[in-house]
Amino acid sequence: MASLFSGHILIRNNSDQDELDTEAELSHRLDNRLVLLFFGAGLCPQCQAFAPVLRDFFVRLTDEFYVLRAAQLALVYVSQDPTEEQQDLFLRDMPKKWLFLPFEDDLRRDLGRQFSVERLPTVVVLKPGGDVLTRDATDEIRRLGPACFANWQEAAEVLDRSFLQPEDLDDPAPRSLTEPLRRRKYRLEPTARGARGPAGGDNSGAESGAEGLF
Fold first, then answer.
1. Which residues 6+ apart lie within 8 Å of 142 measured at CB?
2. Which are the contacts of 101, defined by CB distance < 8 A and separation ≥ 6?
3. Residues of the chain above pLDDT 70, percent
4. CB neighbours (10 Å) of residue 106?
5. What is the spatial distance between Cα 39 and Cα 135, in angstroms, rounded to a whole number?
6. CA 60 to CA 146: how far, in whole Å?
7. Mean pLDDT across the stretch 48-52?
8. Residue 51 has what pLDDT?
9. What residues pair up with 12 in beta bridges, in sequence order?
10. What is the spatial distance between Cα 115 and Cα 124, in angstroms, rounded to a whole number?
11. Of 58 and 172, the one with more pLDDT
12. Where are the alpha helices (DSSP H) in the chain?
């Protein structure tokens, strides 16, 4: 997964704005995790309404106040804000564990084209290898909340090896009776630059169009 951002810098949304600028740092934060790419903008009314939902979703999965062990989940905010000041203002109330690209990095636009983003907000869910699991999970996150993660984890076969006995590492047993159904629902598709595909969720609401952004 770190290869998606190879040669680029990711910044942590904490007070020090720590930079992840080496392959080792990127791998530590992104590998063996489901990665959410959140395409949004602070001035977008639909993004303003969705941001608290996504913030609560992320915190309840990664904050030790709610869980014994943080989920194998990372989120990268791919800003479509017109100015750096608006980007900073939007991120001010977002979780400190969120990552984001520097405003001047053109990868913000390139990722929108690569993943065929057509509206804001959009949350692209990537499996650890970089394949697209869900092209837009905004509606699913609204409806199901943190329960989404268990579905994605099984479909993407994200394996938490620390909970397995040594003899089970190479041939883990199925994790639930519903795993085959979830794997059928989330059909994995390789990421193709410039390829367009259907959104992963039913977003028939009034999301803002992203035409012309990328």
1. 50, 53
2. 5, 8, 9, 10, 11, 76, 77, 78, 79, 107, 108
3. 74
4. 9
5. 11
6. 7
7. 97
8. 98
9. 99
10. 8
11. 58
12. 23-30, 45-62, 84-91, 107-114, 138-144, 147-156, 179-185
d(CA 211, CA 117): 9
| Burial (0-12, 13-18, 19+ Cβ within 10 Å), 42 | buried
User: Given the structure tokens 């941001």, which residue do they identify?
Assistant: 51
Confidence of residue 211 (pLDDT cuts 50, 70, 90): low
26-41, pLDDT tens digit by residue? 999 999 999 999 999 9
Residue 110, both tokens: 């390139």
Amino acid at the residue 96: K
Backbone torsions φ then ψ of 192, nearest 5 degrees = -120, 125
pLDDT at 193 over 50: no
| 62, two tokens | 């990664």
Instruction: Classify residue 95 as exposed, middle or buried by CB count within 10 Å of its CB (0-12, 13-18, 19+).
Output: middle
* Number of C-beta neighbours around residue 50 at 10 A: 23
| CA angle (88, 92, 94) in 5-degree steps | 120
